[in-house]
């Protein structure tokens, strides 16, 4: 009675039936220490030929990175080792992503099979539901789709069977909508690919603030075992996808990938020489613009905005005799991780020669100020600012989305080639490398209103 009154903790004796029963159960469950085991047989890596076509120039043919991804997935479905383990997951946008060819090829999973005649039955790529279907088309339920992705991505440890789940969604409806599920996926050591399609605040034209994603990569950066990329060209995507398969299945790393792809069509160049390491590390030198100018700058771009950087470099070279190095930044997130790791190592070893971060190795000996721009808010590219010793200016798409054309959106958010040229000239004037009147003339030439409110 005294113990009840004081609400004391009650513990049966070691010899009691209760304690004996609990210990017996625990031993049958494998002991007192939690242990994660996996006896899954590793998936044999696909032939390099599967990705080879994507390393070449597309010639005069224009395509989006979404289309390039679908072609790679189609090639993977021809690999007898990969095909049975591939789990394409789509909420409801299969046709938007150009994936309707999968319906007839591998079918949509339905545990009772097809029970209706689809409205598009006369089309070549009509809906085909099947008990043995492979595509998980969940309808408009991102939470359900994510749960399926986690189930397939943890199958290697829960069922000793490795799977390759690839979940494609409108990028705004991924981290923005189901962040808690993605955090849980990381905690559960899920392996697989998350694909943020129709990404970029100015690239998904005309769909306003609900759909236009400008911050998913920042949300991805909060998850320790998420490896994220924003590639511009098909060869970058191919290298990243191939490396992801290797790391998760050959090397057995408990990581997952977040890759953004776009719906803007353009020509893709062939892969430059010796850039694979840079693609995976987060940046590489795409092109040097040399016109024997006395001034040189560094231009960093990613996703579709890299193309605006390339166009800006051409204008600077032709009209202003300013040379530039254009860098394709496939991941500001990966550059930040590397920078933090190197900074920590240097602080813990004060008596040793400091190491340089990868971004500093790339830019340290290069001449000129640095201009960075992306289709995401400025905080995305700002992540590398602490690891750069040169003057650094970043531009992005801070604010809500708008319903307009790509050209108008990029003009509004000030990430088009005209704004990049003007800001570069103004930054050079600030550094007293050119006369300020050159920047003023550019503003007049491109009709840039300096009194316009900051984009929001």
From TrEMBL:
<protein>
    <submittedName>
        <fullName>Uncharacterized protein</fullName>
    </submittedName>
</protein>
<dbReference type="InterPro" id="IPR041621">
    <property type="entry name" value="PDH_E1_M"/>
</dbReference>
<dbReference type="InterPro" id="IPR029061">
    <property type="entry name" value="THDP-binding"/>
</dbReference>
<dbReference type="InterPro" id="IPR051157">
    <property type="entry name" value="PDH/Transketolase"/>
</dbReference>
<feature type="domain" description="Transketolase-like C-terminal">
    <location>
        <begin position="282"/>
        <end position="416"/>
    </location>
</feature>
<dbReference type="Pfam" id="PF17831">
    <property type="entry name" value="PDH_E1_M"/>
</dbReference>
<dbReference type="Pfam" id="PF22613">
    <property type="entry name" value="Transketolase_C_1"/>
</dbReference>
<dbReference type="InterPro" id="IPR055152">
    <property type="entry name" value="Transketolase-like_C_2"/>
</dbReference>
<dbReference type="InterPro" id="IPR009014">
    <property type="entry name" value="Transketo_C/PFOR_II"/>
</dbReference>
<feature type="domain" description="Pyruvate dehydrogenase E1 component middle">
    <location>
        <begin position="55"/>
        <end position="269"/>
    </location>
</feature>
């Amino acid at each position: 009675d005294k113990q009840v009154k004081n609400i004391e903790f009650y513990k049966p004796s070691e010899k009691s039936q209760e304690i004996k029963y609990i210990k017996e159960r625990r031993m049958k469950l494998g002991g007192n220490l939690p242990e994660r085991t996996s006896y899954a047989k590793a998936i044999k890596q696909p032939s390099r030929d599967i990705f080879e076509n994507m390393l070449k120039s597309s010639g005069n043919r224009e395509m989006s990175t979404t289309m390039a991804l679908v072609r790679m997935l189609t090639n993977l479905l021809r690999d007898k080792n990969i095909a049975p383990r591939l789990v394409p997951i789509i909420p409801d946008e299969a046709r938007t992503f150009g994936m309707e060819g999968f319906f007839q090829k591998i079918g949509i999973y339905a545990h009772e099979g097809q029970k209706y005649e689809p409205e598009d039955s006369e089309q070549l790529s009509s809906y085909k539901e099947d008990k043995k279907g492979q595509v998980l088309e969940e309808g408009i339920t991102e939470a359900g789709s994510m749960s399926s992705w986690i189930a397939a991505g943890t199958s290697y440890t829960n069922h000793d069977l490795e799977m390759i789940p690839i979940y494609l969604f409108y990028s705004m409806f991924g981290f923005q909508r189901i962040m808690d599920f993605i955090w849980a996926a990381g905690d559960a050591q899920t392996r697989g690919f998350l694909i943020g399609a129709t990404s970029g605040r100015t690239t998904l034209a005309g769909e306003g603030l609900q759909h236009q994603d400008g911050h998913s990569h920042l949300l991805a950066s909060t998850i320790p075992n998420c490896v994220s990329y924003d590639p511009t060209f098909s060869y970058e995507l191919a290298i990243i996808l191939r490396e992801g398969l290797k790391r998760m299945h050959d090397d057995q790393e408990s990581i997952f990938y977040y890759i953004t792809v776009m719906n803007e069509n353009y020509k893709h160049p062939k892969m430059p020489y010796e850039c694979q390491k840079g693609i995976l590390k987060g940046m590489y030198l795409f092109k040097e613009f040399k016109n024997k100018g006395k001034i040189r700058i560094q231009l960093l771009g990613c996703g579709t905005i890299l193309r605006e950087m390339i166009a800006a470099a051409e204008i600077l070279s032709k009209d202003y005799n300013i040379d530039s190095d254009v860098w394709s930044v496939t991941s500001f997130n990966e550059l930040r991780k590397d920078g933090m790791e190197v900074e920590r190592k240097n602080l813990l070893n004060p008596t040793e020669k400091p190491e340089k971060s990868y971004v500093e190795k790339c830019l340290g000996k290069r001449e000129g100020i640095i201009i960075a721009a992306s289709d995401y808010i400025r905080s995305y590219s700002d992540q590398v600012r602490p690891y750069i010793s040169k003057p650094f200016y970043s531009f992005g798409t801070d604010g809500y989305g708008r319903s307009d054309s790509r050209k108008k959106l990029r003009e509004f958010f000030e990430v088009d080639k005209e704004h990049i040229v003007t800001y570069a000239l103004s930054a050079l004037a600030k550094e007293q490398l050119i006369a300020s009147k050159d920047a003023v003339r550019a503003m007049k030439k491109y009709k840039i209103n300096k009194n316009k409110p900051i984009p929001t």
